[in-house]
Design a protein that fits this description.
Layout (H helix, E strand, L loop, with lengths): L5 E6 L7 H4 L8 E2 L2 E2 H11 L4 E6 L3 H10 L6 E6 L7 H7 L8 E5 L2 E3 L1 H8 L8 E6 L13 E5 L2 E6 L7 E9 L2 H9 L7 H10 L3 E5 L5 E3 L3 H10 L17
Parallel strand pairs: 1-4, 1-6, 4-5, 8-12
Antiparallel strand pairs: 2-3, 6-11, 7-13, 8-11, 9-10, 9-11
Helix pairs in contact: 2-5, 4-7, 6-7
Length: 253
C-alpha cells in the first residue's frame, strides 16, 4: 500500500559545479535530452503516484517558478518554499518545509534522475512512525563517478553510516527517500551553528536505529552534478524513454 502522495523536492542550490552548462541559470532547469532536470524529476514522481509537490527554491528561484508557470504538470498541486539561506547545507532546505508537511512524504533532489518504477516500489515500503527509508544502490561497480557518490554502510536493511568520505561501505545513496515528518526533528537535533546537511540528520537517525535502506536492484539513476555526469545521464536516459507531459517544453539552458 502506498504510504505517501506528496513529494518534497530540493531545488535551492546554485549548482556551481555544472555552471559550464547552466551559465547563470538555476541548475534544476539545465537541459537533459530536451527537458529541464526538474521536469524529469516531477514527471517521474507523478508517474509513480505523487499528487502534490513542495519545492524548495533559493538560487534564482523566480526563474524556476516562471518556467513552471509556463509548463505546469497536469493533475498536481505545487507549493513553493523560499530558502533565503540556500548557500547553507541542504538540511536547511528540508527544514524550510517543516511547517507545510504533516504527513509521510517522498524526498527527492532536483538533480537526481531516476526511473518511475523505482519510486513506485519505494512508496510501497512500510515505514515506521519515526523512520526514514533511503533507496540504495548496491551495484557499486556500476556507478558513474564513485568518488563523488554518497556512500552507505548497511547491515541487512539497517543503515549504520552515511557520508561521502566513508571508507567502508556496501551501497550508495540514490537521493530518493521515503520519510515521516520525524525527519524534521532529527535534522534540528543535528543542526550546529544554524546549519546542517541532510546526511547530518540521517546519521543521528542511524545511530538510533531509525534509518533503513531499500535496494533498488538493477534500476538506473544518476546524480547530475557536473557536465560529465550530465553527458552520462543523457546516454543512460535517452530522450525516447521519457515520454513526459502532454506536449513539448523549453529548457532554460
Amino acid at each position: 500500500m502506498q504510504t505517501a502522495k506528496l513529494a518534497l523536492i530540493l531545488a535551492a542550490g546554485n549548482g556551481s559545479r555544472i555552471a559550464a552548462r547552466s551559465g547563470e541559470g538555476p541548475k534544476p532547469l539545465v537541459n537533459l535530452n530536451g527537458k529541464p532536470l526538474l521536469e524529469h524529476v516531477m514527471s517521474r514522481a507523478r508517474q509513480a503516484g505523487i499528487e502534490e509537490f513542495v519545492i524548495v527554491v533559493g538560487y534564482r528561484g523566480e526563474a524556476i517558478k516562471e518556467w513552471y508557470e509556463k509548463h505546469p504538470l497536469p493533475g498536481v498541486h505545487v507549493t513553493w518554499i523560499e530558502n533565503p539561506d540556500f548557500r547553507k547545507d541542504n538540511g536547511i532546505s528540508v527544514l524550510c518545509a517543516k511547517s507545510v508537511i504533516q504527513e509521510n512524504f517522498l524526498l527527492l533532489m532536483a538533480d537526481h534522475i531516476f526511473e518511475a518504477e523505482t519510486v513506485r516500489s519505494l512508496l510501497q515500503q512500510p515505514v515506521g512512525n519515526d523512520e526514514v527509508i533511503l533507496a540504495v544502490d548496491r551495484n557499486i561497480r556500476g556507478i558513474f563517478d564513485l568518488d563523488d557518490a554518497t556512500k552507505v554502510k548497511l547491515e541487512k536493511d539497517r543503515i549504520l553510516e552515511i557520508g561521502k568520505a566513508l571508507q567502508s561501505y556496501n551501497a550508495l545513496d540514490t537521493g530518493m527517500f521515503l520519510c515521516t515528518p520525524a525527519l524534521f526533528a532529527w535534522l534540528e537535533k543535528a543542526a550546529a551553528n544554524g546549519n546542517c546537511s541532510l546526511s547530518d540528520g540521517l546519521r543521528v537517525m542511524a545511530a538510533h536505529g531509525k534509518f533503513r535502506g531499500f535496494d533498488i536492484g538493477g534500476a538506473h539513476w544518476q546524480d547530475v552534478d557536473t557536465p560529465a555526469a550530465l553527458d552520462y545521464a543523457q546516454q543512460v536516459f535517452p530522450a525516447n524513454c521519457w515520454n513526459i507531459g502532454d506536449g513539448p517544453s523549453v529548457a532554460y539552458a
